[in-house]
Amino acid sequence: MQKKIVPPRLQPRTGAGSTRSALLDAGVALLRDGGISTLTQTRVAQRAGLKQSHLTYYFPTRTDLLLAIAEHAILGMEEALATPPKAVPASDRSTPAAPPAAATAGKSAAASASTLASVLSERIVEGVPPRAILGLIVAADAEPEIRIALRAFVGRMRQHVRGLLAGAGLADDEDSALLFHASLVGLAVMHQARLDETSQREVSHGVAALLQGLLPAGRTAMGNDHDPFI
């Protein structure tokens, strides 16, 4: 008889905000590890080490839970991008002559775009937001009210996209954000359809190419350390 594997429980946290976060973290882990079919309210509560009544208090329906998980994953990506890089020890620093301001700005934008490309590619391959949204799209055929929630969600995500582009010093006008958002969704869906090394490489290459096109005039190339296609 095959031994049943019980997933490790997250430690319960104190406070309303941390309880909600613990439930969302558990949902993200289930969705990432087992896909949409594993995401039930009972399993999420068990994975978080909390009572199901806690989950239904914050997320009365599975739709509420899926929408919150998708947005939680996006916000986690923004937090990762907002984390400052580790400082270089003084003993390891060199002191070359200061470059022109324009060159410095171009390199800064390219470096920010490179970081954004790496984080976006990682989250798309991880698959949490696209799996949640694909599950909701299917469910919306039977429950039209889900479509209303999805429309609002897409609007919020567009604002997140514009914020990410602006934070990296890239073109963040409405048209650029629309095309970039739509392209990310396309890459995510194609990857979820195949889930192989080729689709993973295409995600990395596609995100890098998109961001390269949004660098400001006089831009500096992003480099190829994150792009296996170059």
Which properties best describe this structure?
single chain, 230 residues, mainly alpha, Arc Repressor Mutant, subunit A, Tetracycline Repressor, domain 2, disordered N terminus, TetR_C_31, DNA-binding, AcrR family transcriptional regulator, Tet_transcr_reg_TetR-rel_C_sf
Largest sheet: none
CATH top level of the largest domain?
Answer: Mainly Alpha
Quantity of strands, as a count: 0
What is the name of the CATH superfamily of the largest domain?
Tetracycline Repressor, domain 2
The CATH level-2 architecture of the largest domain is identified as Orthogonal Bundle
Low-confidence stretches: 1-16, 84-90, 92-107, 224-230
N/C terminus separation: 49 Å
* Residue-averaged pLDDT: 77
Tally of separate domains: 2
CATH topology label of the largest domain: Tetracycline Repressor, domain 2
Q: What is the 3D shape? A: globular
Count of DSSP-assigned helices: 9
GO molecular function, one term: DNA binding
Organism: Rhodocyclus tenuis (Rhodospirillum tenue)
Protein name: AcrR family transcriptional regulator
InterPro entries: Homeodomain-like_sf, HTH_TetR, Tet_transcr_reg_TetR-rel_C_sf, TetR_C_31
